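Batch job 17 of 40 flagged for manual review because the log was empty.
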Amino acid sequence: MILDDWKLILITMAAGALLSAIFTWIEIPILKKKQFGQYIRDEGPKSHQAKSGTPTMGGLALYGAVTVAALATPLYTKVRESDIWVMVAAGLLFGLIGFIDDYIKVAKKHNLGLTVKQKFALQIVFALAFASYVMFLGEGQSVVWIPIINRTVDIGILYIPWAAFVLVAMANAVNLSDGLDGLCAGITFIEAAFFAIAAHSIGKIPSMLFLAALAGGCLGFLVWNHHPAKIFMGDTGSMALGAALTAGVIMMRTELLIPIAGFIYVAEVLSVIIQVVYFKKTGGKRFFRMAPIHHHFELGGMSEVQVVLMFWGFALACCLLTWFML
């Protein structure tokens, strides 16, 4: 029996949430036993020093749950399996970069993992491979849909570097949002749930199911990651989430909606860029109290929970605005 799309969204999301909560519950004592604890950078907010030693690399359980929930969908649907596998693989490969980075940090007991060049080199290779699939083996299109004016532009072979750029940029943007308890998981739940609904509205069923699994995985992880967090996702999780979310959206051919619905990620990146440029131009002065911008509000007197709730609300507002635009 083939279930209707809304039931599929709910079932897949529920499966992702349940598996994520269970897998994370199993992983926490394992990480504690192996002493895989988070190292808090000295230049960060002083209040965060108390979090030092909290188990990290929770992204293994989180994205493991997403993978199982997503790959189970072809068992009860007629969805194109290869598309699901490729979206899952995008998250796995970027998550692997994050895992290597996290492992080096844990093993050496400091906050420096892979170099920037090493990270970007791996990200670009994986992103180009994904973009090539989308263009040549997926729907075989090289078009970019422009929202608001509702037109498509065929950019030919340039679609590959374009899609690769979007994937790399967003993976790193989501990574920057992972700085407070529950912040990244909560925002990504909202974004993934929104795009799953959007995918349903335009008939992109593989993306719909994959993004529903991703949203569920984030929701289940929040059981253990909300303040005060019992586990952090680490770069293993944030890199996987960023790549997975973006891969699902690219497969929908709606990548230009990301800066609108996901403006919270854009704001995080812009705050870092503005801070660095202003610091260099003014000889050491800071534009924000601290970047990324969530720390600016935290150092301004807001509690960690207040900042997280404010950012969740802003992410939801951006998604609702995007829906009305559609």
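Reviewer: the log was empty due to a logging misconfiguration, but the result itself is present. The chain has a mean pLDDT of 89. Unflagging and moving on to job 18.
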